[in-house]
Amino acid sequence: MSITEHKEHAKDLGHVRYALVTTSDTRTLATDQSGKAAQEMLGGAGHACVAHELVPNDAARIRATVEGLLAREVELVLVSGGTGISRKDVTIETLRPLIEREIDGFGELFRTLSREEIGTAAILSRAFLGVARGKLLACVPGSTGAMRLALGRILLPELGHMVHELTK
Fold it and tell me: Does a structural domain hold residue 141?
């Protein structure tokens, strides 16, 4: 089956259930613009939000929240924030151990496309995507622009196909 046929077949598989986690010490659910962008984009594509959680930049709380969401009936857990290089950016180190299979191309493509928008500062992003407990786990930077890029140019075009592959 060609990649075009795979994608067409994946479109017929229905909508994806997802959970959104924002890691931040300063935002609230009301001020979480990247979370709102994610919900608009995923909802606009017909996908269903099962939960939206906001947790501080605390490794134990991030891990517990994500593990709880992975136990729910979702196909995607999308985490926004904590992917930089400052001391409080702990998302990657916290969640990478949950990954059974990393999808390296996501981070590579994210940084390549980010470079078009923010130049060489794109190297500071540690965005990643992987499979955890048979579900997609994506970590993206917390800015609205990063969320729009990750969803609009990478994840949404491939989401149905990826979920299909995980359910084979």
Answer: yes
How many other C-beta atoms are found inside a 10 Å radius of the C-beta of residue 23?
29
Q: Is residue 7 part of a domain?
A: no
Give the DSSP per-residue string, 100-159. Answer: SEE-HHHHHHHHHHHHHHHGGGGGG---EEEEETTEEEEEE-SSHHHHHHIIIIIIHHHH
Tokens of 163: 């979920």
pLDDT of residue 13: 60
pLDDT of residue 45: 95
Asked if residue 161 is part of any domain, the answer here is: yes
pLDDT at residue 168, rounded to an integer: 86
Three-state DSSP at 90 gives: coil
- The CATH code of the domain that includes 112 is 3.40.980.10
Residue 50 belongs to domain spanning: 15-166
Tell me, yes or no, whether 6 lies in a domain.
Answer: no
Helix/strand number for the chain, H first, E second: 7, 6
To the question of pTM greater than 0.90 for the whole model, the response is: yes
Identify any residues that bridge with 136 across adjacent strands, giving them in sequence order.
Answer: 76, 131
Domain tally, the chain: 1
